[in-house]
Design brief:
Elements lengths: L3 H8 L1 H10 L21 E5 L2 E4 L4 E4 L14 H11 L10 H13 L5 E5 L2 H16 L3 E5 L27 H4 L2 E4 L4 H10 L3 E6 L4 H4 L1 E2 L2 H13 L3 E5 L11 H6 L5 E4 L10 E5 L1 H4 L23 H14 L3 H23 L5 E3 L6 E3 L28 H13 L2 E2 L12 H20 L4
């Protein structure tokens, strides 16, 4: 009987051919690090609802959800209608428009910290702007971030974002790295100690549910402690809600936990599946962008060709209207919880020694964690080495599970994400695919 990888290469032969061609165009043949796959990626032709379809016609239940940008579904009718109506009226107006005002007002109404809003084009741009605003406002230079937390790929925040966390990122000048302090997650004593000895910290950034959308989870009480200690030291507290914004709750993680940061960065769901990002926060900080600043040295420049593009604004408005009800989040959270429990039961029934954890609309599987007598849902990521949470302990298992799930009609990434379109049938099909894939992995001698 052919192995999982052999079947994958045979079933997706057309994708393999495209992957070879793509390597003559792009590094590794992909346009995003996370789209690189071994032995090769599948190619998607279109998507609708909870499904996407490969170029050779294979239907896949989708748990990528547009890298987290989709809360509702692929092609939600309200968003399609809004963008279709807008596109014939001009894709770039080269000026202010009412859609940007409506979009910004939705952000102000939903996000507790949003006294002012400035649109950008991505989460990376958002944290880049937020750091410069914080430095301008405080007159300080240093940035604190936590190991395993991702805030974009620019120089100040990419260190220690992806495993191996202790390996330096090339291409960043040492002088820049000197201004970035990486601290262990959930360690308030480390934060206090550093702030007491370093008066030059301008900003502290955190993903409020944990690094990598909860892969390295965060304790709610840690957020409360951060709010207090940053206030005590005059440090700007930023919640990076690029993923959690409008997903954890209509008002993001900050509304869910009742903790208001000084600034918030957003993207993904904000623009309803189109490109877009934003920085929101205290008026006295964001008003440093204002042309009216009498102190020229305090005016922070911010152009941007596609800021608040009308197509992204149309999609964002349509999405936030629905997200404001809280119904999509409740459904997505319930779906993820059902999957976590179902997958955990399958793992425990087979005595695999794997863990399952997560909250809200995502989860992660930890292979062969090595803790005896621990059932899958009893796995505690807070007591596990955070350096190992973001990378597969057994890459061979991760590779075969991913390929096997694709063969069984499910696109299940390392951190699966759910959306409102996922149905009960999708859940049952996913659990069935998981069982079948484990049977194949056993036949291949992997488990």
């Amino acid at each position: 009987m052919p192995s999982i990888i052999e079947r994958y290469e045979s079933t997706f032969a057309t994708d393999r051919e495209l992957s070879v061609q793509a390597q003559e165009i792009f590094p590794d043949g992909v346009t995003h690090d996370n789209r690189h796959a071994d032995p090769f990626s599948v190619y998607i032709s279109h998507a609708d609802g909870s499904k996407k379809y490969t170029i050779s016609g294979h239907e896949l239940i989708d748990f990528w959800c547009g890298h987290g940008a989709l809360l509702l579904s692929h092609n939600p009718p309200e968003v399609v209608k809004a963008v279709s109506a807008r596109i014939g009226q001009g894709t770039h107006l080269g000026g202010s428009h009412q859609l940007e005002m409506e979009w910004g007002q939705w952000v102000k109404d939903l996000i507790p910290s949003a006294e002012r809003v400035r649109f950008v084009n991505s989460g990376t741009e958002a944290t880049l702007m937020a750091i410069r605003l914080a430095r301008t406002f405080t007159g300080r230079n240093n940035v604190i971030k936590f190991a395993g937390h991702f805030h974009g790929w620019h120089d100040s925040v990419i260190p220690a974002a992806r495993p191996p966390l202790d390996v330096p990122v090339p291409g960043i000048p040492g002088a820049v790295l000197d201004n970035t302090i990486v601290l262990p997650p959930n360690d308030i004593d480390a934060v206090r100690s550093h702030l007491e000895s370093d008066p030059d910290v301008a900003i502290l950034l955190i993903e409020p549910t944990g690094g990598g959308w909860g892969a390295v989870p965060c304790k709610p009480e840690f957020l409360a402690d951060l709010r207090q200690v940053t206030s005590d030291h005059g440090v700007i507290l930023l919640f990076d809600e690029v993923i959690t914004g409008f997903r954890v709750s209509p008002g993001g993680a900050q509304a869910h936990y009742g903790i208001t940061p000084d600034m918030t960065t957003m993207a993904k769901i904000l623009a309803g599946g189109l490109p877009g990002g934003a920085v929101a926060g205290r008026a006295d900080i964001l008003d440093l962008i204002s042309i009216k600043k009498t102190d020229v040295e305090k005016k922070m420049p911010h152009p941007g060709t596609f800021n608040a593009n009308p197509l992204s604004a149309s999609a964002g408005i349509a999405t936030l209207k629905i997200a404001s009800t809280g119904e999509p989040q409740a459904h997505a959270n319930e779906t993820a919880a059902t999957l976590r429990h179902g997958i955990a039961k399958i793992i425990d029934d087979r005595n695999l020694g794997w863990g399952v954890y997560g909250e809200f609309s995502s989860f992660r599987i930890v292979f062969d964690h090595g803790i005896p007598g621990v059932r899958a849902l009893e796995f505690d990521p807070f007591t596990f080495d955070h350096n190992r949470l973001k990378s597969p302990i057994r890459p061979d298992l991760a590779r075969n599970l991913r390929c096997g799930m694709l063969l069984n009609g499910v696109d299940l990434p390392g951190t699966p994400i759910t959306m409102a379109a996922h149905s009960g049938d999708d859940i049952q099909a996913t659990l069935g695919a998981f069982e079948t894939t484990l049977d194949w992995m056993k036949s291949d001698g992997l488990i």
